[in-house]
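Posted in: Structural Biology > Protein-Ligand Complexes

Title: Requesting predicted complex, flavin mononucleotide in pocket

I'd be grateful if someone could produce the 3D structure tokens for the following input. Sequence and ligand are given below.
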Amino acid sequence: MPVITCIDDLRELHRRRTPKMFFDYCESGSWTEQTFRENTADFQDIRLRQRVAVNMEGRTLATRMIGQEVAMPVALAPVGLTGMQRADGEIKAARAAEKAGVPFTLSTMSICSIEDVAEHTTKPFWFQLYTMKDQDYLRRLIQRAKDAKCSALVITLDLQILGQRHKDLKNGLSAPPRLTPATIADLMTKWTWGLEMLRTERRKFGNIVGHVKGVEDTSRLGEWTAQQFDQKLDWKKIEEIKKLWGGPVILKGILDPEDAILARKVGCDAIVVSNHGGRQQDGAISSIRALDPILQAVGDDLEVHIDSGIRSGQDVLRAIAMGARGTYIGRPWVYGLGAMGEAGVTRALEVIRNELDIAMAFTGKRDIENVDRSCILVPAGFSGVWD
Ligand SMILES: Cc1cc2nc3c(=O)[nH]c(=O)nc-3n(C[C@H](O)[C@H](O)[C@H](O)COP(=O)(O)O)c2cc1C
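-- Reply #1 --
Done. Output follows.
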């Protein structure tokens, strides 16, 4: 068993153990990858205070996100295709999240279906919705999430069209991978991945294939998804979906204070300040820099979460101290999954939990609920003076 001390260790194992096209799919941003890089780099600009001679016994990280109890303010972000990073990946990750007491968000573009994940877990998970043009399919998808007792609908707003990731085009990304001389040569070095994949039936987009007329094979699916994302999505449509769902709603992909105000107006339980991990608008501001102006715009009336760029418990602490109520990790849990399956996702959560706990203790706090701006040092002009 390798000694895993940080998220980067899992990333390296993921790289070694997973077919290149899936590791690259995870480890890339759109176009020049500027926003992808800045998401992580900008977190480092915020320094943590160190206080001494403060009783640090009896610490707790337990809190609430959208009123639901969480063991720490860290959820697993929705990530598409994770059943290709490791066989049955979504089920494995959902189980690890359940054991750790944190929310798991299942992507619309998952390999394991909503029903599959519900069947293999005992606690409700969150479902992430991409809005599609096919209204009939959209309604049925929402109903399926309701039937599976999902406890929140996370509506992603920043992917009506797809940001281009060069590596995916060059690698010919597909699920399952098409067999070419290059993919065969790569797969020959990824035996465990291949054997596990042969043992599962789950190798197609489980929420789509078999649920949409005429979409049975993956080649047609690619065409279908490219045409199906609803470019006409607007606030009115979001309101309709919200009504249809009738439960807690989280709006994901807010980066601008004006949109945060509109999200508050439409009514939702939380927003996620996110640039999709730098995979959509390249050149957009990093999430952590976008956080403060958004918090100021919405005041105390709206719960604000954040993702994009979190790679450690210290980053979680930075985000919570800035004023976010909750955080999400995307790539860190996928690295864990690709590295070691369910045990790897568990390890990613343990690493982050341990780092968060100790970093919080060093700031002189014992309860995550009491973490605030006094725990950090934010450089002047951090959120930018933009014209
Ligand atoms: C490989 C990959 C696939 C993703 N797929 C989805 C998806 O299906 N739905 C969604 O809302 N966000 C998706 N995201 C974005 C994540 O939910 C999240 O916003 C992002 O990963 C956070 O950044 P981080 O990876 O730096 O933690 C994806 C991200 C990655 C890296």
